[in-house]
Amino acid sequence: MAKTAKITAILVVVLVLSLVVFTACDSSLQDEIDRLKQEINDLQQQVGGYEADFEEKHVVVYVGEKRFEVTTRKAYLHDAIKDLFEEGKISAYEYGDDDLNPFISAIDVLEQNYAESKYYSVWHNVDNFSLKGLDSSWGNPSRATIETDQYGTSYVVTVVDGVKLNYSAVGVGILPLVDGCTYAILVD
In the chain, what are the domain boundaries? Predict the structure, then answer.
């Protein structure tokens, strides 16, 4: 009986020590998971070298023919458009998916016409290669022209009120607002 009690006591001690070690490992493992999640979040906040910027910035946003001068601390075009809607400056802003990957389904009075292949298009003049839409043989908006840089890279561009804008390679959810830049949502 004493031998069984000793074995039971040893097993209890081993079990308690195992739980302590497991809890400590689990805690450090959770810390590592949290650190990795933060790193992933930080990387997601970077687009083409632009980190989320919550400093005050002044941008111009066109929704169709309507021009808005926007002063904001928001980081992305999606947030600025939501503000325009919430402030009653545009009549509608509906989007699918979520705030991280919004797909515009309605904006102000602009209407898509699927039968005529007229869809919403996003434009900007942020000077960054990864944010500019490259020329392709399909899908270029009707208002687009093609511009080739000194390296032979062809971009899709248009001009709105005298400002050259690039067709956006990214959606409104991750298109960064950069002080002094111009953005446009058009139908092409």
Answer: 1-44, 57-187
74: left (phi over 0), alpha (psi -120 to 50) or beta: beta
Note down pLDDT in tens along the chain; length 188 residues: 555 555 555 555 555 445 445 555 556 777 777 776 666 555 555 555 666 778 999 999 999 999 999 999 999 999 999 999 999 999 999 999 877 789 999 999 999 998 888 899 999 999 998 899 988 766 677 888 999 989 888 899 999 999 999 999 999 999 999 999 999 999 98
DSSP string, 20-49: HHHHHHHHHHHHHHHHHHHHHHHHHT-BTT
Residue 142: its H or E element: none
Lookup result for tokens 């705030």:
99
Give me the CATH code for the 57-187 domain, please: 2.170.130.30
Cβ atoms of residues 85 and 93 within 8 Å? yes
- With tokens 């409104």, the residue in question is 172
Instruction: Supply angle C-alpha 114, 116, 119, rounded to 5.
Output: 50
**CB 143 within 8 Å of CB 134:** no
> What token pair was written down for 44?
């997601």
